[in-house]
Amino acid sequence: MDRDAVLAWARAEGVRLVRFLYCDNGNIIRGKVAHIGILGPVIESGIGLTVAMQGFTITERLAPGTAQGPVGEIRLVPDLSTFTPLPYAPGEARMLCDMRTLDGADWEAYPRTFLKRMMARAAAEGIEGRAAFEYEFYLAREVDGRYVPADDSLCFSSDGMDRAGPVIREVMDALDRQGFGPQQYYPELGPGQQELSIDHAPLLTAADRHIAVRETVRAVALKHGLVASFAPKPFLDQAGSGCHVHFSLWRDGRNVMYDPEGELGISALGRQFIAGVLAHLPGLLAITCPSVNSYQRLAPNMWSSAYTCWGPDNREAAVRVASPFRGRVEATTNIEIKAVDGSANPYLALGALLAAGLDGINRALDPGAPLAMNPHDLSEEERARRGIRRYPTSLGEAIAALEQDAVLMEALGPVLAREFLAVRKAELEDVGRLPPDRQVAVYFRRY
What we know:
six-stranded mixed β-sheet; eleven-stranded mixed β-sheet
């Protein structure tokens, strides 16, 4: 789609305002709004933005370790393929943006740049990654200054469908009208907790849609007087919320993760990819579960995964081999990576998972035997024999693991690694010292 096509579409839809959005290193969706009167020029030139915004934290301060500050500017340049009129905000549209330097180069400190770079690395090996997220979130209302679940319905219950129906119907309709291919929805385990999914897509599109889904769910909930929270553990006494990633690998229109003769239907290349993810998982967690709140969710027997293992439909394993559907076996063969949550920047998460998996392929790593039981039920000696490790149990431990992971640090590059780590360490300093209930309060509305 070119500039003239976007302008024509915008006018035909009665669009007056266009949101130029980006996702920062704290996974906060930010941006600027352009009026239709200047849309044509700013599509080409971009909108100015201080470089300091990539060093901002969830507590709205500039991270002490950032190299960004009051001097310097980049441009928010929209990806025209993401232009979407907003069904929930008549007269408005959205575009996801790249960050470019003043001379037009992609800015190294921006996560979307990183994902595109990792996709190019995979493409050089003839591989295209595709992904879909599972979106878990709570619907809540504010009562006497605190948030409470919107209902007390049960997991998968039709009662929960009825209670959340007005919101969910509008959400699913809005996703459909944006072309995202909504798939399934159901009430999840926690009271007021929901889960929905959309169709899988190439990685950049999947990450862009992740931003759009969050925006859609929260905006529709707000219209109904509710708050939607994607925080990993918004209620300490209730089930946590993940944002699991379903990942597959493709070449020339075929799913190369699939092999009908392979164990669990997974090809040798797929096994190597899984092994790469497992090998780098301690450091990956700093990217895929990057908040203090994340580690109030990641624990044994929580179905969120807590150990570096893989297995068939094993929801306590880090990597679940999802059982495919009869008649669509190749198309639906994929792995589900459990240790991802709503505090993760989707561009960073998908890019880092791809980098880890490619390392497994390049080094021909072996993930070992798949595990068809809860890894927590094994003895420590048996886990050690199988090479199964317990996750880092805090953000600080995960950050330290990332800093020691040469593959992931090289993939991020020195500029993005510096900025990302500065933001995560500042968040750990600001939020990590708070009591658990105060930590929850920090994250509830932010995600």
